[in-house]
Amino acid sequence: MIRKAIIFSAPSGAGKTTLVRHLMEKLPILQFSVSATSRSKREHEIHGKDYFFLTPEQFRAHIQSNDFLEWEEVYPNHYYGTLKSEVERIFEEGKVVIFDVDVVGGLNLKEYFGSEALAVFVKPPSEEELENRLRYRNTETEEKIQLRLAKAKHELAFEDRFDTVIVNENLEIAKGESLEKVKNFIQ
Ligand code: 5GP
How close is the Cα of 70 to the center of ligand 1, in Å? Predict the structure, then answer.
């Protein structure tokens, strides 16, 4: 069975989700790994498509049962993780799995998959721009924005540990670069 993985990681607000969506449109062999989370569902989100939404208790039960390939408590009581069952399902379908995870999660996945994974770090052009993007999204309270911003600034330090870096200054250029790199890797 082919077990190839594409990992897109970035500080929240760098634009990695847009790039991952673009890649999935262009390359049907890619299949998105739906993560589990215990954070509350945003209005437009769909259970089973964007995330598997669990209560913190349900999430902790899966941790106990060793069901996760990696997991993190990203903010207090806000767990995020990759279910082993989700990744196995994708490989069984003969697809290449693509992850949209935070930076620590990305490094953990890279350690697990080794050379079978391409780990891509998506970088905002500057810290100011990152803050603008987080605010523009406007889905969070000021307190949550501040939490995300502090986490994002910390995450910028990890780019050297990824296989490759894409600076998302111009979205069209970043989309083209992402497609090129992923195509080369899965060929
Ligand atoms: P959000 O709440 O904005 O959907 O996601 C918050 C952060 O958690 C993002 O950086 C997102 O990529 C990350 N994340 C999503 N799924 C996972 C996962 O399965 N594992 C880890 N470690 N992080 C994840």
Answer: 11
Local structure of 97: helix, strand or coil: strand
Q: Looking at domain 5-186, what is its CATH homologous superfamily?
A: P-loop containing nucleotide triphosphate hydrolases (3.40.50.300)
Partners of 146 in beta bridges: none
Predicted structure pTM score:
0.91
Q: Which run of H or E residues covers position 9?
A: strand 5-9
Q: Is the pLDDT assigned to residue 137 strictly greater than 80?
A: no
| Gap from CA of 52 to ligand 1 centroid (Å) | 12
**DSSP 8-class letter at 47:** B
Of 2, 4, 8, nearest in space to 121 by CA: 8
Rounded to the nearest whole angstrom, what is the distance from the C-alpha of residue 168 to the centroid of ligand 1? Answer: 18
Which is the closest atom of ligand 1 to the Cα of 17? 12
- Which is more confident, 151 or 70? 70
Closest protein CA for atom 9 of ligand 1: 102
